[in-house]
């Protein structure tokens, strides 16, 4: 029996009166990559935003159901602690523009109460190294984050998320605003990071899911239609709708 | 090849744009030539001495410079702080009808005519200051020179408070709009790192919005420096410098408003024009400093 890192049970989510997730059940193994695919508006972003309780920060947004991470019920925890346990990388690189490269990575640590300069510095270096950015920025840590290229900014955002030592990393279409070479670097990075972290990645790009994910979940209209090993979902899906989507007939 | 209608429009736009520039230059030249007599006669003494004696034609404008500086800085600090805090409250702590209702009410403060502020200041605020607030401040903070002396009611404190209220709508409305324009993904970036709402505001949103907030404060300061009638009604109009906020004083704008009808001699009128010139230069200087400051911030942030 394999262990479970993330367990989702009967998860519903609303925007105002619109129900956008209709009861999702999903289990994710530790140190694996799970891809969430589906057409625009199918609820895949909302789904991962429910995992770190970011969905409920939207006005009028509501969630019901259960999410366990490492055995703990996320919806019984303090949301601040949840978001330290579950890091997130967004669709468009969003480094804090008023801050230097160093300060961007150190900010989460400061929120967590780390004050010791030497520890901050060590952790910033580690995180940048894990995000495969250290060599490119080690001589310019105090330059503005906005001086980096788009792909570098996104790796900076990954480093920022890793700095607080989360268990899980959520990625919401992390490469959709990037060029192919930057995209490839992020994909390689995901492959390395899964040795340490459990990764859930939303993607619009089915080739990307096929390249990097161990498990793929297909969402449609707020329902989880099918979930399974990536190769099976792409080659022998159980559901006709999954087959239509992965073969490019809609979406 | 441009069409005729385009050329006409072009001409109009150039005319309109150049008109503003020409007016600015005309004001500057007019103030310069009119204040010539005073500049030649008093030189630097005009801005460093504090005797204002029309009878003997001796003019030193330091009390007015001091009064304008004290009252507008008071408004900048007090009104600015309250304004920025109100903006943060409106953006992050209330939503829906209450936000728009409260925001609208604060913006309406800008629609009250200055003279009405003056009336209220003279008949409501000043007596309250004299009998309640100033004695209280004197008792608890009287060890500071700022809060010593006889409570007059009318004076720097009354003028500073009136100006604070008057710049509040400008500072609040602009800061609110600037904070509302902070992108959602910047806020979410902070939340996703485990920030509390307060940490998100202080570490991420306010720094992001700072150039806009500084512009808002500078616009408020500009209004405070130039405000005339309300201040004239509550400041006491005494050309003296005192460390106490309770004491009556005078500002540059109020001395011009009060004395232009009495300025019978050439040098008296010229002295008033020089006060006007200084006021004009002061507001231009504020504006330039604010622009440079904002540009400096923009530069350190790369292309943002």
UniProtKB/TrEMBL annotation, chain A:
Pfam families: ABC_tran (PF00005). One of its GO terms (molecular function) is ATP binding. CDD domains: ABC_PstB_phosphate_transporter (cd03260). SUPFAM superfamilies: P-loop containing nucleoside triphosphate hydrolases. It comes from the Bacteria. InterPro entries: AAA+_ATPase, ABC_transporter-like_ATP-bd, ABC_transporter-like_CS, P-loop_NTPase, PstB-like. One of its GO terms (biological process) is phosphate ion transmembrane transport. Residues 6-246 form the ABC transporter domain. One of its GO terms (cellular component) is membrane. Keywords: ATP-binding, Nucleotide-binding, Transport. This is Phosphate import ATP-binding protein PstB. It comes from Alicyclobacillus cellulosilyticus.
Automatic annotation (TrEMBL), chain B:
Residues 65-290 form the ABC transmembrane type-1 domain. It is a multi-pass membrane protein. GO terms for molecular function: phosphate transmembrane transporter activity. InterPro entries: MetI-like, MetI-like_sf, Phosphate_PstC, Phosphate_Transport_Permease. The keyword Transport applies. Keywords: Cell membrane, Membrane, Phosphate transport, Transmembrane, Transmembrane helix, Transport. One of its GO terms (biological process) is phosphate ion transport. It is found in: Cell membrane. The chain crosses the membrane at residues 12-31, 72-94, 106-129, 149-174, 213-235, 275-294. It holds the Pfam family BPD_transp_1. The keyword ATP-binding does not apply. Its main location: membrane. GO terms for cellular component: plasma membrane. Coiled coil: none annotated. Belongs to the binding-protein-dependent transport system permease family. CysTW subfamily. Part of the binding-protein-dependent transport system for phosphate; probably responsible for the translocation of the substrate across the membrane. This is Phosphate transport system permease protein. It comes from Alicyclobacillus cellulosilyticus.
């Amino acid at each position: 029996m394999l262990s479970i890192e993330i367990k989702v049970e009967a998860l519903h989510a609303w925007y105002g009166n619109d129900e956008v997730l209709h009861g999702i059940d999903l289990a994710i193994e530790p140190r694996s990559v799970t891809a969430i695919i589906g057409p625009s508006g199918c609820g895949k972003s909302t789904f991962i935003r429910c995992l770190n309780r970011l969905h409920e920060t939207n006005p009028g947004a509501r969630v019901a159901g259960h999410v366990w991470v490492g055995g703990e019920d996320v919806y019984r925890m303090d949301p601040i602690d949840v978001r330290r346990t579950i890091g997130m990388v967004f669709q468009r690189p969003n480094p804090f523009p008023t801050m230097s490269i160093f300060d961007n990575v150190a900010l989460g640590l400061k929120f967590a109460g780390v004050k010791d300069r030497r520890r901050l510095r060590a952790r910033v270096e580690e995180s940048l190294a894990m995000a495969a950015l250290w060599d490119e920025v080690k001589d310019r840590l105090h330059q503005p984050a906005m001086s980096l290229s788009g792909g570098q900014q996104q790796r900076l955002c990954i480093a920022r998320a890793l700095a607080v030592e989360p268990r899980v990393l959520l990625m919401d279409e992390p490469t959709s605003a990037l060029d192919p070479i930057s995209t490839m670097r992020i994909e390689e990075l995901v492959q390395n990071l899964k040795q340490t972290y459990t990764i859930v990645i939303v993607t619009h790009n089915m080739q990307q899911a096929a390249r990097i994910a161990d498990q793929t979940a297909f969402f449609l209209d707020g329902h989880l239609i099918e979930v399974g090993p990536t190769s099976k979902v792409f080659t022998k899906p159980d559901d006709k709708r999954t087959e239509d989507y992965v073969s490019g007939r809609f979406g | 090849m441009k069409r005729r209608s385009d050329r006409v429009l072009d001409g109009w736009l150039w005319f309109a744009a150049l008109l503003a520039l020409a007016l600015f230059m005309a004001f500057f030249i007019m103030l310069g030539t009119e204040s010539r007599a005073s500049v030649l006669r008093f030189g630097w003494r005009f801005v460093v001495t504090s005797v204002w004696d029309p009878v003997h034609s001796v003019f030193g404008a330091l009390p007015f410079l001091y009064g304008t500086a004290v009252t507008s800085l008071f408004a900048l600090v007090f009104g600015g702080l309250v304004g920025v805090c109100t903006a943060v409250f409106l953006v992050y702590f209330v939503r829906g009808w209450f936000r728009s209702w409260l925001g609208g009410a604060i913006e309406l403060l800008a629609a009250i005519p200055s003279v009405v502020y003056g009336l209220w200041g003279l008949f409501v605020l000043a007596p309250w200051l004299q009998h309640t607030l100033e004695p209280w401040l004197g008792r608890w903070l009287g060890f500071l020179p700022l809060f010593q002396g006889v409570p007059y009611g009318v004076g720097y404190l009354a003028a500073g408070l009136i100006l604070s209220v008057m710049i509040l709508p400008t500072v609040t409305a602009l800061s609110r709009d600037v904070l509302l324009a902070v992108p959602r993904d910047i806020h979410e970036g902070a939340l996703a790192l485990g920030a509390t709402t307060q940490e998100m505001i202080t570490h991420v949103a306010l720094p992001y919005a700072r150039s806009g907030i500084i512009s808002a404060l500078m616009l408020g300061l500009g209004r405070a420096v130039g405000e005339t009638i309300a201040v004239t009604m509550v400041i006491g109009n005494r050309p003296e410098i005192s460390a106490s906020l309770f004491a009556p004083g005078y500002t540059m704008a109020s001395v011009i408003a009060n004395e232009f009808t009495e300025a019978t001699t050439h040098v008296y009128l010229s002295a008033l024009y020089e006060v006007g010139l200084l006021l004009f230069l002061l507001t231009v200087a504020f504006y330039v400093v604010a622009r440079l400051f904002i540009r400096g911030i923009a530069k350190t942030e790369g292309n943002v």
